[in-house]
Amino acid sequence: MSLPLTLGPARPVPLSAINPVAQLSAIAVLTAVLLVSGDLVTPAVVLAAELALFPAAGLTTPGEVLRRTWPLLLSAAGVAWVNVAFGTLDGAAAWVSGATWGLRVLALALPGILLVASTDPVRLADALTIHWRVPGRFAYGALAALRLVPLLATEWETIRLARRARGVDAVNPVAQARLVGSTAFALLVGAIRRGTRLATAMDARGFDSGVPRTNARGSRLHARDAWFVAGAVAVCAAAVALSVVTGAWDPALG
Q1: Could you count the other beta carbons within 10 Å of the beta carbon of residue 200?
Q2: Which tens digit of pLDDT belongs to each residue from 26-50?
Q3: Domain coordinates of the chain in residue numbers?
């Protein structure tokens, strides 16, 4: 199974119309509420709203959804299992606690997947520098790093195939671990060299000169962006209200 390294939408999707900083603002609202709530109802409601946005992000087929989310699903399942197996609660309470933590992990991480699946990284960098005044060295440096992630995955496969062609292959778990470690080290060395060249190139283009830079593409906020953030606030308010009404509300910080 391949890693979910694809950045941005492969085709125009409805969620792409929302400005990246509006999406980040909505994520901040959801994160604040999910970090405070310690019950099962609140993350369940938020998660349902996030799942409803999957078609708008272009995630319409089970294969595409699984390719994007399988590391997250494994992480959430692991968190839930650890809470059930090693928590202080017993019986049904332990399972409720495990489900609560698993849903919180999913609800906290899915907005990031939606953002990556629907947003061109260039638009994200432009929006951060224009609307949030993020320094260009940081914003476009992060953009360049994201662009290199798929390349690193390709290089990993190239190194692995090249070593197999030379007869370097694992015959047991110990040899497999050593081979993975040496491949990772080779990839790290190549990544450091590429990062150094990239930093030098950015400095040569004046990204750290302190001179105000213009933006050729621009980034505008529209009424739909405000409505999107308002929708996130409404979902959080509804989730907390339902949790309080059902008697499930249990502040994690309380």
Answers
A1: 10
A2: 999 999 999 999 899 999 999 999 9
A3: 14-125+219-245, 134-204
